[in-house]
Amino acid sequence: MKRKNIYIAATLVIAFILLIAYASGYRISGFMIVKTGQLEIHVPYKNSSITIDSKHAGLTHEDNEIFVLKNLRPGTHTVLISEGERYPWITRVNTPYNTVQKIYPFNIKISSNSTIVETTDPTYATKVKEIRATTLPTSSNPVFSDDKTIGAYVDGDSIKAEWQSTADSAPALFCENTTCTRTIEIAPLAKEIYGLTFYPGRNDVIILATEGGIYALEIASHDNQNFQPIVLGQTPRMQLDGNTLFVLEKNTLGIVIIE
């Protein structure tokens, strides 16, 4: 009877320890007990739905909300951010054990807020002249993100991004596994490009004017770059002023508000 009581007590102690470990974020992985990962999703818009590995994880209630997913098993997870009036954003993220990963989705409005500038408007002649005089950024004269940390430019048949400090301080988007570099290719050029700038307030998303339209393109070293249309066209040229995007299609000047 005494031995049985000891066995029950030991079982309860082990169960209690395992319960505490589970609540603290530890999981069994193979023959090891590992600390789970955590994911911080910096979601720009309220009413955004968060899905991870095809399971609904929650809904944001404010703009620029940080949505935290805890106790993620180490490994690769698929994250989808969607909002009814915007294009969805999806990525695969690796969450090593005992780490906090941060991701920054973007979601372009499906129906943009746009207007046409009449030729009689005093702005028309000035903006058309400025846009037509714009040249593509080069390695010696790149376009910079608002925070000046990253430059982007056209280099031959590709678009590249360059971290403006040392490689050992580069953010994750300049790293593959444990190797980081100051310069990465954003995308090869399959079509002619007419303009290149950074998305307002972001250093990890560019705006690209090319055949077919103007697009927001993620800077990423992984294979699932997000690519979302801002406005469609044939051979559009552009100029960004704050959140106002001036779009020139032949002789037609339009304004698109990025929001």
Name the helix and strand elements from N-terminus to C-terminus, one letter apiece: HEEEEEEEEEEHEEEEEEEEEEEEE
**Number of distinct beta strands:** 23
The end-to-end distance, rounded to whole angstroms, is 72 Å
* Number of continuous helical runs: 2
Major sheet, described briefly? 4 strands, antiparallel
Radius of gyration: 24 Å
Q: How much helix, percentage-wise, in residues?
A: 10-25%
Q: Assembly type of the shown chains?
A: single chain
Q: What proportion strand?
A: over 45%
- Secondary-structure-based class equals mainly beta
Label the overall shape. globular
Number of structural units classed as domains: 3
Would you write up a description of this structure?
The structure is a single chain. With 259 residues, the chain is mainly beta. The protein has 3 domains: 1-33; 36-107, Immunoglobulins (Immunoglobulin-like); 113-257, no CATH class. The protein is built from 2 helices and 23 strands. The strands form 7 sheets. The chain has a 4-stranded antiparallel sheet, with no helix packed on it. Strands 10-23-22-21 form a 4-stranded antiparallel sheet, with helices on one face. The protein has a 4-stranded antiparallel sheet with strand order 11-12-13-16, with no helix packed on it. A hairpin with a 6-residue loop joins strand 17 (193-198) and strand 18 (205-210). The longest helix has 22 residues, at 2-23. It is globular. The model is unreliable at 12-33 (pLDDT under 50).
